[in-house]
Design goal:
The structure holds 3 protein chains of 3 kinds. Chain A is of the alpha+beta class. Helix content of chain A is about 50%, strand content about 15%. The longest helix of chain C is centred in the last third of the chain and has 12 residues. The chains are: A alpha+beta, B mainly alpha, C alpha/beta.
């Protein structure tokens, strides 16, 4: 739209503030777009509106008290956040997690991945412009999953269910049947989204070729999760460095081609199929009874001095916990390696040269949750 | 002079005044009903129920909304240009009402069937673009300005296919008078002979109404209101009413021009009430399809929208006019029109599908080739 | 290159780690290895750490092209340590690199010349610990407010308000865990 003739005019770029209060920024996030007509020339993101000092607070917390903080750093995928933390504590305290607890952890983490991706699909649908339908579909599916989580842990979003060593309490007796029920509705939900959006010509026109990032650039920026897999890099912690029982289940790593917004959306959609597959295999392999905490759990959990960096595959990318301990029952330094902040660094590269409406979609496709960015 | 109104002989001015008041009242009530209907239809598509508590089946929801809006404080930003800001809504609202003059609801229920009915309609309704720009500029707000400019660009671009589609039908019918057009459709509605013109009119009407998928002026970064972002209370409700009134008018015009209005297929025999029901049904069909599209498809970006109008709709509308002219001048059979129309619809559908599916290469952001996962990264700057 | 061991601790068993290749890649740079719970930790003096990181990235056999995390640990009297976690996407290897900073001179060169990902990570580390990264292209605050550039929250010397236990003693919320 900006032709050669426009250079004869002296124009000034418009500074558009996509401010902290905005329906499309997925939380309190501010970016200042420098816009020339409709084309974005520069993006300056401002974060920190949701910084609550989780890392500092955890230094004064006992290991078990810190679990609640980890929930709140990523409230949409709280099980995955808790998992990294308790795995780090277990590595330092040399605790052995019983088998049944590991399977249950795996099931819950994958179900949480499903609910997080449903949330993404809903919010992304709104960003692209479909009025309410994807959002309502997403919420309908999430209700099923969240009801299950409430039955298991007592809370709909901030579970505080994992403990170093295993789980807080055992799952209800009808857990397997409930999970199968939930999977059935989740499968239908994924199919609904597929029918609604994937082949829609207007959706394709809006998202194909928009916000592309190449594989080399993505690795350079340290992106992770579906955002980097859409660029063609098969980086998945579950396959590269398997934890829990991921080496005993069979699933594919979904890799895209162009690294544009459509590929990021499609990778997440296909990942939901893989998650359903994983959960089904786990249900078959999970022992029906067994301990969920090790036999000799110390009353006060102390860890040996040392440090560890545990990484797991959260729905948004690689959620890492770097835990330094000097003995005692508190961390000396806890660093949360947040996937979203690394993905967000690449926002400028992806948005410059696109239209304003595309910048919004690109932000939506990176799928950030501000509590993880800001901790 | 006297005029005949429901069998009463009245002074012309009184007759005009009464008709206007009736139409305005009818329109307000109908618009409130349309807002309620839309919410119910959208809710059903979303597997929800929609308004259900205010009044029986939620029927008083629109009344409640209107009361709330009227009771709100009328805010005006201090740096907003006073005259432009306050006159903007009127410039959007009044041209829509002007369009109601020529629409025939039932056999004698209209304000005035002008001979240049369609032309008058198009001319009057295109004035509302001025109102959009006034609202956007007068708000002294960047989002409003961007939305207003987008609305102006979109409105102007889609006027042309809209007008040409109506002109094509006018050529075929030999008149712009809506009453005579309806009379000519007593056997076969014009949609049979002019399917492509009907489709072009439908798409262009969606764009003129700023409805999805063309609602980018009011979807500024998705939901921040566009030119209306600084308005509150009764001024905002005027925009809202204007949008639905325009939708109502477009439904009526579409049903009058293409679907045979109140006459097809049952003719004049069954009485006024039945004809009113028929008009309502046809307009309702248009409305339902518009709402259906709204909740199903994403919105187009401004450049895709503009290129669609200028590169796809306008040439096809011109071709339709040409073919109409050829057929009428040479006296060929009307079946040619039907055949051409169907071919045209197929062409339009194909081209639309291909046009929106082709990814656009933007200047300065060409798609980067996929680099293999490197053994060394390049040394960053 | 000298595998320095502390006199009091036994020599760490590095045979299961990638120390030999790392050692080869870091030829000419002082590097001291240690084994953490999962990964190999390499201590490099801060003057040579950026060069060491660059060598690790460019080395054909190791190819650490992915910077996972960059942070710092406040060790009170012993200074601060800047910690880099590296990963190789092609070879699936991990290594942790640490550089020690004395308390009176908390400066170090920026790693943005090696990976772009270091940009925001260094901004956050700088504002939380008060470390200055020389040559950083954009040294603004990231999470902290723009005007609070003199407060470094994650330092051990920065006080955390006393946590008032507002539940009753009967809940057993004391120092001794639950």
């Amino acid at each position: 739209m900006v032709t050669e003739h426009a250079q004869e005019f002296e124009t000034q770029d418009l500074l558009l503030n996509v401010g902290p209060q905005h329906p499309s920024t997925h939380g309190v996030f501010r970016m200042v777009l420098s816009v020339d007509g409709e084309v974005v020339r520069d993006v300056v993101p401002y974060i920190g509106y949701l910084h609550r000092g989780a890392e500092k607070l955890c230094e004064t917390m006992d290991y078990r008290q810190g679990i609640g903080f980890m929930d709140r750093t990523e409230y949409l995928a709280a099980f995955n956040a808790e998992l990294s933390y308790v795995m780090a504590v277990e590595a330092l305290a040399e605790l052995e997690v019983p088998e049944r607890a590991q399977w249950i952890r795996m099931i819950l983490c994958e179900l949480n991945r499903l609910s997080s991706h449903f949330m993404f699909l809903g919010a992304f649908g709104i960003d692209v412009g479909v009025f309410a339908t994807p959002f309502i579909y997403a919420w309908r599916e999430r209700e099923e999953l969240i009801d299950l989580f409430e039955e298991v842990s007592g809370d709909r979003m901030m579970y505080a269910y994992f403990r170093p060593g295993g789980l807080a309490w055992d799952v209800p007796r009808n857990f397997k049947d409930r999970v199968r029920q939930v999977l059935k509705s989740a499968r239908q939900g994924v199919a609904d989204f597929n029918h609604l959006l994937t082949e829609n010509e207007i959706f394709l026109a809006r998202t194909r070729g928009v916000g592309a990032i190449s594989a080399a650039e993505a690795i350079e920026w340290g992106m992770s999760g579906p955002s980097i897999r859409a660029s063609g890099v098969p980086l998945d912690v579950r396959k590269d460095e398997p934890y829990l029982k991921y080496d005993q289940v069979d699933f594919d790593v979904i890799v895209g081609q162009n690294g544009d917004v459509y590929d990021r959306y499609y990778c997440r959609l296909m990942e939901m199929h893989e998650s359903i597959k994983i959960v089904e295999q786990c249900l078959d392999k999970m022992p029906d009874s067994g301990p969920i905490m090790p036999e000799k759990m110390p009353r006060m959990l102390r860890t040996a001095p040392g440090e560890v960096y545990i990484r797991t595959e959260a729905p948004r990318g690689e959620y890492g916990i770097y835990l330094v301990s000097k003995g005692g029952n508190r961390p000396y330094r806890l660093k949360v390696r947040s996937a979203c902040i690394s993905n967000l660094q690449a926002l400028k590269d992806m948005s410059v040269g696109q239209y304003v409406a595309d910048a919004i979609i690109v932000l939506g496709s990176i799928d950030i949750v501000l509590s993880e960015v800001d901790r | 002079m006297t005029a005949d109104l429901f069998g009463l002989e009245l002074n012309v001015w009184a007759d005009a005044a009464i008709r206007l008041v009736l139409i305005v009242t009818l329109m307000t009530v109908v618009v409130m009903g349309l807002i309620y209907l839309e919410r119910k239809i959208i809710a059903r598509f979303n597997q929800r129920i929609g308004p259900q508590r205010t009044g029986p089946f939620g029927l008083l929801q629109s009344v409640a909304d209107a009361l709330k809006l009227v009771g709100k404080e009328d805010l005006r930003p201090r740096s907003a240009d006073a005259w432009t800001f306050e006159l903007g809504p009127y410039f959007i609202f009044i041209p829509v009402f002007l369009g109601f003059v020529i629409v025939p609801f039932v056999a004698d229920w209209h304000i005035r069937l002008l001979d240049l009915g369609l032309l008058y309609f198009i001319a009057a309704s295109s004035l509302s673009i001025i109102g959009w720009v006034m609202a956007g500029w007068g708000s002294d707000n960047r989002y409003a300005m961007i939305g207003a400019l987008r609305a102006a660009a979109q409105g102007i671009s889609y006027e042309l296919p809209l007008v040409l589609a109506l002109v094509a039908v006018g050529i075929y019918a030999g008149t712009f008078n809506l009453g005579e057009m309806i009379a000519q459709q007593d056997v076969v509605p014009f949609i049979v002979w002019q399917p492509m013109a009907a489709l072009i009119f439908f798409i262009a009407a969606l764009a003129e109404l700023n409805r999805t998928p063309f609602d980018i002026p009011v979807g500024e970064s998705e939901v921040v209101g566009g030119p209306f972002v600084e308005y509150s209370g009764i001024r905002w409700s005027m925009f809202f009413l204007a949008e639905y009134a325009a939708l109502f008018i477009m439904s009526l015009v579409f049903s009058a021009v293409f679907l045979g209005g109140f006459l097809w297929p049952f003719g004049d025999d069954l009485g006024r009430l039945f004809q009113a029901a028929l008009t309502t049904a046809k307009a309702g069909l248009f409305f339902f399809v518009v709402v259906w599209i709204r909740i199903s498809v994403p919105r187009l970006r401004i450049d895709q929208l503009m290129s669609y109008s200028w590169k796809v709709l306008l040439p096809l509308a011109l071709v339709q006019v040409l073919v109409n002219g050829l057929v009428l001048v040479n006296g060929w059979s009307e079946v040619i029109l039907l055949a051409f129309g169907l071919v045209g619809v197929a062409v339009l559908a194909t081209v639309t599908g291909r046009a929106v599916a082709a990814p656009r290469i933007r200047p300065g952001a060409a798609r980067r080739p996929l680099a293999p996962a490197p053994a060394h990264g390049e040394a960053a700057s | 290159m000298t595998s320095d061991q502390t006199e009091t601790a036994p020599a760490p068993d590095l045979s299961s780690t990638i120390w030999s290749e790392v050692d080869r890649a870091l030829a000419g740079i002082t590097a001291r290895p240690e084994k953490a719970v999962l990964d190999l930790v390499v201590y490099i003096p801060r003057d040579e750490v950026i060069e060491g990181l660059r060598r690790l990235k460019k080395d054909e056999g190791l190819a650490f092209d992915y910077l996972r995390s960059l942070t710092a640990v406040d060790l009170e009297e012993e200074g601060m340590e800047v910690v880099y976690h590296l990963y190789s996407t092609t070879k699936r290897l991990n290594v942790t690199v640490k550089a020690s900073l004395p308390n009176d001179d908390l400066t170090i060169d920026t790693a943005t010349t090696v990976w772009k990902a270091a940009n925001w990570l260094e901004r956050e580390t700088a504002e939380m610990f008060g470390i200055r990264f020389n040559g950083h292209p954009d040294p603004r605050t990231l999470l902290m407010p723009e005007d609070m550039t003199d407060t470094f929250p994650l330092r051990k010397s920065h006080p955390l308000a006393e946590i008032e236990v507002l539940q009753g003693e009967g809940m057993g919320y004391s120092e001794e865990g639950e």
